[in-house]
């Protein structure tokens, strides 16, 4: 069976741990990165199927990472979910126009993440 990979990009170890538990429960192989630069390096080697992306991070923020990802060979393929505390509509629109597939508000739980991943076609819909 083909496994799907999910790259979790967040500078918070706790958020990465919570997200990892959720997406592993959905059958993903998980990799983690603490910032956009680390994530970009990972994607240059292995293009994940799904990226859960924090917005505010040191070194390279989520939006900068997303723009660079979409320019990589194969970089249009991953489904990217912004996981953010950002609620301003203009900022969310900016993320979507930069190539995000959807966004999830923090804090999120398994149910929310599952339904968002299903919306973008990354997993089966929760029954």
UniProtKB/TrEMBL annotation:
Query: Any keyword Amino-acid biosynthesis?
Result: no
Q: Which InterPro entries match?
A: CheY-like_superfamily (IPR011006), Sig_transdc_resp-reg_receiver (IPR001789), ST_Response_Regulator (IPR052048)
Q: Which residues carry this modification: 4-aspartylphosphate?
A: 54
Keyword tags: Phosphoprotein
Name one matching Pfam family.
Response_reg
Residue ranges of the Response regulatory domain? 5-121
Superkingdom of the source?
A: Bacteria
What's one GO BP annotation on this UniProt entry?
phosphorelay signal transduction system
SMART domains per the record? REC (SM00448)
Query: What is the name attached to this protein's record?
Result: Two-component system chemotaxis response regulator CheY
């Amino acid at each position: 069976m083909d496994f799907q990979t999910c790259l979790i990009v967040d500078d918070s170890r706790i958020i990465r741990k919570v997200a990892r538990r959720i997406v592993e429960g959905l059958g993903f192989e998980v990799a983690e990165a603490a910032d956009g630069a680390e994530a970009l390096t990972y994607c240059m080697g292995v293009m994940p199927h799904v990226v859960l992306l924090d917005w505010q991070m040191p070194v390279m923020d989520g939006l900068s990472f997303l723009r660079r990802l979409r320019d990589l060979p194969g970089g249009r393929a991953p489904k990217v979910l912004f996981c953010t505390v950002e609620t301003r509509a203009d900022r969310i629109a900016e993320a979507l126009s930069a190539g995000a597939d959807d966004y999830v508000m923090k804090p999120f739980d398994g149910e929310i993440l599952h339904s968002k991943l299903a919306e973008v076609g990354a997993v089966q819909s929760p029954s």
